[in-house]
Each structure stands twice: as structure tokens, then as C-alpha cells.
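Students often ask why inverse folding is considered easier than folding. One informal answer: many sequences map to the same fold, so there is more than one right answer. In these notes we will look at a single instance of the problem. The structure comes first.
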């Protein structure tokens, strides 16, 4: 366990550095940006799910004074929006604009004009002739021999790859001998689980502003989680030197993975700006954004074998996922699915087979957990069932089999592994069980009446970054610059993106703690690709752990230089000097213990170094973490099921996490509650649906796309959260990740609670009232554990 009693910044609740700007509305997001002489863009998007563009007539729009672009006017280079994976795992099938739209909403032309109104009028004036093609929205139908082909070839590692039966990619993982493992088992369970096609629903839709610069370069202000990868991809598409491209890091109004890649509007803004030779802004509407990305839907056939003493011996998972119109990251997605099977429980034998299929729908990409909510839903539901079958408490089954300290953790699939050094799982289970009153649970057979309560739980885990002793198939390193100014204040400069959860505040606290300066003296600097070293992306719950580690390392190096300068002035060795905040002077001070005359403020050291021409106290580093420690979670949920309407209500929730040292307490708690909220929406409401006949999304707006409302959460006093603080030796100040473990187990915890209330196992989410009611009626008709529900008894 960690002890933060001697800390003045780490672990303390403090006002956020970006709070005033956000609560007053003064923070500038990309969509707020206005530049002198800026033009506005509109994008012509396909109304058809699958078509070929025969002709585009832009003459009337051009007569209005608009600049117009079609597929013929932009580079025809095929690329992948996501550049985190290595080339051998990155499938390229997308272009800036297309003459072969493969989904409703795909961009076929773009215009820019001097006003929003003129741009809209010019867009309406463009005439597009389409040859409408047969489309397919069901992934199983897409694999049939007579199904329409979406992509004949894609580019993989510089080579053309043939696509057959719309199969975008496949992946197999084998550990041990699964057949032998199932032969050893006394109990073997098998079932099929289905998860929905949820939309990210981030507050900020995707936008981009591009300005041609006088020197021939460009500056871009995008909505993105990764300014450096965006810069690299722009350079690749438009054949520009990276030194001629500057990508500005903008505040991000949420993301949930939707901007892990360079978003499709970015190259459109660049192409229009280069053509118009003036700044151009593109802002996505909400319905356009909903056609842009979604969570991977899955159909999972899962089989688990266990011995009668409660040892989990074998697991087999076969999964099918629908990637939509473009394959952004299906190969790593499948690897991560298999990896999380191996990382949840110590199965000696694992067989995994995954297949990803193209359909004429919005492309799937990373979303909160990246393959983990899907995998954990299936595994944790079946583990709960295995425990019941064997006749032991689910908590005991978890304690006996989970992947913990000393075991090998698969951080992001089979290529990224490390040994676990910190583990608070048993404490999470013990405290969560006590808070929810786990021992009071009654079996489903004892429930009766219209309203039935049940308690369930599930355990979650997620990687902290994608590092390991040996680099895997994903790039993973961060950079930071820490500079001490001549008055003792400090500048933190990093490309690390904050999605709104306080990642950069955590970084500032690390700087303040290590240097011994007041937190208010640390400033998080505005940054871009010109003044920062590379940071891969804020994803995989790596912000505090990996990005923070680079910040901490840079701070330590700056501190060494500070102490060296201080030793010259105090005339003592550097290791004799201590540093602490000096509240009276609003600075940090260097001092020698027991020698009152040997002290000096940090500002005095920095200013004297300037006068003596010693140089600036600063350090810049690039850092790759060589571990990917698991961040654990355990969620306990009490639900009430209305047996007459099928509605599921959340009564009580207990949320526990082991994230190592908690750097930023209140935002960390916000992650717990916010993650559970989205996980509950995923379990109960959220999915995008398509009309088979037209390929149109039926609920492409936030009125029809149902999410869990605030009123759907339990009352505040019925939501408890806690942390088990362990010390992660590879993490900055002992910290590891927090965000994604907070959503991964939620759907399974709710489904297990619904089973405890009704005796019905739900293997498909969302568990909408109509589905629940249908299952209740099926159970009553079958007479299985039948409980009479009076028709008019409220």
C-alpha cells in the first residue's frame, strides 16, 4: 500500500488548472476557432450505403465563388486513420474523398466559401450522379459468396492484399491444448454473447481548421487525441515535409476513443485550404459524427471448462466483429480480445479465433476499453454461471483463478506482455462485498412479485499503456519538457492529450511534487508539434502511467540540474540539499537540514544561473515504459427488475479500483462514476441500428439514440466508490491507469444482478425492456422456475 502523508501535491484535491476557462465558456475548442480571412467548408456525403460516383457537377457552386474538390482533385493515396500500430498490422483502405462510397455519409466532394450560408448553398448546388450498388449490413451475409464486395484489395505494409468474402482480417491465438483442457474439466459451459454497436457520444463533434502559412507550410487545429500522428499522416497524404506542418493541441471535449486516429475531416480541411490558399474550417454535425465511428459490435461464442474444485482450466472464444466500411484497427482489436481472455483468468489452455468483416455501415474504432467491455461481458457472465454450476461463491472462484501479482499480463494482445508487480484484487473484492452486503443475497428461486431485486458483480482489468520489456505491435512512448523559469515557476510542455479527465493536472502535480514547488507555480503550456517531442496518443489508459512517467523523468533530470546549480551557491554537495515548498514566499526552497544559513529559493537559483551564464534549468526526455501493469476494478450492483414491463432500474452501486497511487483524487472518482454510467448505458440502452433496405442509420441523432439519463443512475447516496491504493514500482509515484477499467465490467455486473433477480441469464446487450420482457414471457411459458406475476398487481 502507498503512503501519501508526506506529499503536498500528489494525492491532494486541488482546483483544476483548466477549470475557469471551461466553466466560464472561455476555453477555445476547434469549432470555436476563427481566423482572419477564414472560409467555411461543407462536405457532400453519399445518401447511399453503397454506390459508384458517375459524375460530379460543381459548375454552379464554382459560379457562386466556392472552391470545390472531388475525388479527382485530392491525392489518391490509400491510408489508415490510425497510425499507432506498426505497418504490418495497419490495413489501408481509405482516401480523402471517394468515388466509391461504402456507407451512407461517406464524403464524395467538399466545398469552401466565404460564409457558412454560401458554403451550404454551394454544397446544395453540387450535383452527383450515382450508380447505386447492392449493399450489405449483416456481417454473416457479407461473407456469403454472392454478397457485394466492398473492397477488392487493401494496402498492408506497402503491398496489395486481396480481400475475399469481405473478410477484413482474421486472427488465431493458441495457448496450451484447449481440447485436452476441456477433457480435464468436470464442468463445461458454452454460450453465445452479443454486444451492440454503441456510438461514442462525446460532447464535441469532430472539427478541423487548416491555415496555409506564408512560408509554404500549414498549421492545423484538429479534434484529436494525437497531434504527432495526425501530423505524420497529413505529411504522408499530401507529400509535405513534417517540418512544414504544425499541428496545434486543442482542448478536447471528450473523445472515448473517437479521435484516437486522424479524423476524416482533417485531410478535407487541408485539401480545401491548400486549394483555396486561405484558412478553412470544417465542423461535423451530430448526425455526420454518428456516421463517422462506433464501438466494435461482437458476436462471441464462449466456452469455459472448470474442475469441481473451482479451477478454471480452459477457455475457447470464437468471435465475429463488424468493422463497417473501413478497417481502422480490427487486427489489433482481435488480438486484444484474445489477450484479455488470457489476462482475466489463469487458463492453462486457450483457443481464440477472431474474424472481422466489412459491411456498409459506419466504421468501428476504439471506444472506452477497446475490446475489453465486449470480452469482459462474456467472460464475467460465464464465470458467474460456472460458480453457480460448481456450487461456490463467485468471489471465491475469482480469488482462486484471477491473473494477479507474479503472473504474466497480456497488456494488448499476444505481443505485449509483462509480469504483474502490484495487485489489490482481493482487497477490492472484500471491501466491495462488505459495502454491498454481498452475504445477504438470495437465490433467484426465492424472488417473487412484480418488482424483484438482485445483486451481481463483475471484475474488470485494463492495461496501463502498451509497453513491455520487448516492444509489441504498437508504438508506445511519450515525451516531455520541464523548464524552471527565472522566478521559480515551472513550465510543463508535453504533447500528451487530456480528454477532459484531468490527465495534465496529474502531470502538473507530479512536477510540483518532485521539484518541491507549490502546485500553483507549475503551468501546463499550450503546445504543438513544433515545440514538443513525440507522444503516441492518449489511449490504452496510458495517460498518467506512460505520459506521466515521461513528465516525471524529465522533472527528475531538471531537478538534478537544479541541485547541481544549488550546490555551487550553497557550497555543499548536491545530495546534501533538500527541497520543499515555501508557502511564505510562494516558491520552493533548497536547504541543508540543520543549517539555517544554507538555504535559497528556486527562483534565486534560476536567476543567478542566468546572471552567471550557467544556462536554463530544463530537461527534455522521450520515455518508453517497459511494463504494462493491469489496473483492476470490481463493481457490485443492485438492480430492480419490473417483471411486468421489463424495465431494469439501478438501486445501489459500489465501485472499487486499484490504480496504484491516486494522483488526482476527485477526477479519479469522476472516472469511476462516469465509466460506470457509460457502461450501464452500454448494458441497457446504447446501440446504433440500421435499416436493412436502405442501409440508413435509424437513430442517427441524440433524440433517438437512447442513453442512460442522469435520472437512471442511483441516488448519490447509493453510489459508493473506493480505491485500494497499491504501489506500482514501474509507475510515476507508484501510479497506474484508472479510466477504462471503470467501464469494462459494468455490463456483466448488471447482467449478473439481473440474473440474481429473475433467474434469467442475459447474453445479449443492450438489455432493453422489450428484450427483457420477451425473455420473462418465454420463461413463464416454458415453466422453468416459474414465478407467478399477478397481471394487475403493482
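Output (designed amino acids):
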Amino acid at each position: 500500500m502507498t503512503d501519501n502523508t508526506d506529499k503536498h501535491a500528489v494525492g491532494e484535491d486541488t482546483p483544476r488548472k483548466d477549470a475557469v476557462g471551461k466553466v466560464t465558456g472561455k476555453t477555445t475548442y476547434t469549432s470555436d476557432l476563427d481566423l482572419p480571412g477564414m472560409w467555411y467548408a461543407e462536405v457532400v456525403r453519399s445518401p447511399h450505403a453503397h454506390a459508384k460516383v458517375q459524375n460530379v457537377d460543381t459548375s454552379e457552386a464554382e459560379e457562386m465563388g466556392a472552391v470545390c474538390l472531388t475525388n479527382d482533385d485530392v491525392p489518391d493515396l490509400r491510408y489508415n486513420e490510425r497510425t499507432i500500430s506498426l505497418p504490418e498490422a495497419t490495413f489501408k483502405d481509405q482516401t480523402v474523398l471517394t468515388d466509391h462510397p461504402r456507407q451512407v455519409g461517406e464524403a464524395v466532394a467538399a466545398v469552401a466559401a466565404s460564409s457558412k450560408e454560401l458554403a451550404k448553398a454551394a454544397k446544395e448546388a453540387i450535383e452527383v450522379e450515382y450508380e447505386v450498388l447492392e449493399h450489405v449490413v449483416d456481417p454473416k451475409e457479407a461473407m456469403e459468396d454472392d454478397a457485394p464486395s466492398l473492397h477488392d484489395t487493401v494496402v498492408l505494409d506497402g503491398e496489395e492484399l486481396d480481400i475475399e468474402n469481405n473478410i477484413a482480417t482474421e486472427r488465431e491465438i493458441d495457448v496450451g491444448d484447449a481440447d485436452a483442457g476441456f477433457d480435464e474439466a468436470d464442468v463445461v459451459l458454452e454460450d453465445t454473447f452479443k454486444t451492440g454497436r454503441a456510438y461514442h457520444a462525446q460532447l464535441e463533434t469532430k472539427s478541423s481548421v487548416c491555415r496555409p502559412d506564408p512560408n509554404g507550410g500549414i498549421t492545423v487545429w484538429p479534434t484529436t487525441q494525437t497531434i504527432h500522428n495526425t501530423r505524420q499522416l497529413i505529411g504522408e497524404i499530401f507529400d509535405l515535409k513534417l517540418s512544414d506542418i504544425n499541428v496545434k493541441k486543442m482542448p478536447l471535449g471528450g473523445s472515448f476513443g473517437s479521435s484516437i486516429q486522424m479524423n476524416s475531416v482533417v485531410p478535407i480541411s487541408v485539401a480545401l485550404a491548400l486549394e483555396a490558399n486561405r484558412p478553412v474550417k470544417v465542423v461535423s454535425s451530430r448526425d455526420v459524427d454518428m456516421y463517422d465511428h462506433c464501438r466494435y459490435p461482437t458476436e462471441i461464442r464462449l466456452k469455459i471448462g472448470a474442475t469441481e474444485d473451482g479451477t478454471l482450466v480452459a477457455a475457447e472464444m470464437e468471435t465475429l466483429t463488424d468493422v463497417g466500411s473501413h478497417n481502422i484497427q480490427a487486427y489489433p482489436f482481435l488480438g486484444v480480445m484474445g489477450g484479455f481472455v488470457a489476462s482475466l483468468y489463469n487458463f492453462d489452455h486457450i483457443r481464440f479465433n477472431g474474424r472481422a468483416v466489412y459491411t456498409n455501415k459506419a466504421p468501428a474504432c476504439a471506444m472506452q476499453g477497446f475490446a475489453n467491455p465486449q470480452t469482459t461481458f462474456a467472460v464475467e457472465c460465464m464465470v458467474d454461471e460456472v460458480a453457480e454450476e460448481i456450487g461456490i461463491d463467485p468471489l471465491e472462484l475469482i480469488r482462486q483463478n484471477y491473473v494477479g501479482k507474479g503472473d504474466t499480463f497480456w497488456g494488448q494482445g499476444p505481443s505485449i506482455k509483462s509480469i504483474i508487480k502490484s495487485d489489490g484484487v482481493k482487497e477490492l473484492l472484500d471491501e466491495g462485498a462488505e459495502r454491498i452486503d454481498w452475504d445477504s443475497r438470495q437465490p433467484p428461486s426465492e424472488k417473487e412479485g412484480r418488482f424483484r431485486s438482485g445483486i451481481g458483480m463483475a471484475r474488470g482489468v485494463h492495461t496501463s499503456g502498451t509497453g513491455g520489456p520487448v516492444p509489441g505491435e504498437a508504438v508506445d512512448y511519450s515525451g516531455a519538457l520541464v523548464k524552471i523559469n527565472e522566478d521559480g515557476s515551472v513550465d510543463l510542455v508535453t504533447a500528451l492529450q487530456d480528454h477532459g479527465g484531468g490527465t495534465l493536472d496529474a502531470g502538473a502535480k507530479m512536477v510540483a511534487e518532485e521539484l518541491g514547488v507549490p502546485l500553483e507555480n507549475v503551468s501546463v503550456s499550450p503546445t504543438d508539434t513544433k515545440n514538443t517531442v513525440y507522444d503516441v496518443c492518449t489511449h490504452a489508459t496510458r495517460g498518467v502511467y506512460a505520459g506521466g512517467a515521461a513528465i516525471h523523468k524529465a522533472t527528475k533530470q531538471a531537478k538534478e540540474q537544479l541541485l547541481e546549480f544549488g550546490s555551487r551557491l550553497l557550497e555543499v554537495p548536491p545530495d546534501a540539499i533538500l527541497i520543499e515548498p515555501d508557502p511564505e514566499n510562494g516558491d520552493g526552497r533548497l536547504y541543508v537540514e540543520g543549517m539555517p544559513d544554507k538555504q535559497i529559493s528556486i527562483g534565486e537559483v534560476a536567476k543567478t544561473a542566468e546572471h552567471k551564464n550557467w544556462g536554463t534549468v530544463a530537461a527534455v526526455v522521450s520515455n518508453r515504459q517497459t511494463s504494462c501493469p493491469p489496473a483492476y476494478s470490481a463493481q457490485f450492483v443492485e438492480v430492480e427488475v419490473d417483471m411486468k414491463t421489463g424495465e431494469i432500474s439501478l438501486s445501489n452501486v459500489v465501485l472499487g479500483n486499484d490504480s496504484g497511487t491516486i494522483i488526482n483524487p476527485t477526477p479519479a472518482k469522476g472516472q469511476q462514476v462516469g465509466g460506470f454510467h457509460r457502461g450501464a448505458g452500454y448494458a441497457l440502452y446504447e446501440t446504433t441500428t440500421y435499416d436493412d433496405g436502405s442501409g440508413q442509420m435509424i437513430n442517427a441523432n441524440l433524440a433517438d439514440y437512447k442513453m442512460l439519463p442522469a435520472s437512471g443512475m442511483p441516488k448519490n447516496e447509493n453510489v459508493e466508490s473506493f480505491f485500494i491504493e497499491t504501489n506500482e514500482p514501474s509507475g510515476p509515484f507508484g501510479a497506474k491507469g484508472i479510466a477504462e477499467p471503470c467501464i469494462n465490467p459494468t455490463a456483466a455486473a448488471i447482467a449478473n444482478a439481473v440474473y440474481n433477480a429473475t433467474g434469467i441469464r442475459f447474453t445479449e446487450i443492450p438489455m432493453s425492456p422489450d428484450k427483457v420482457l420477451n425473455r420473462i414471457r418465454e420463461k413463464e411459458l416454458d415453466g422453468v422456475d416459474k414465478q407467478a406475476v399477478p397481471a394487475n398487481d403493482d
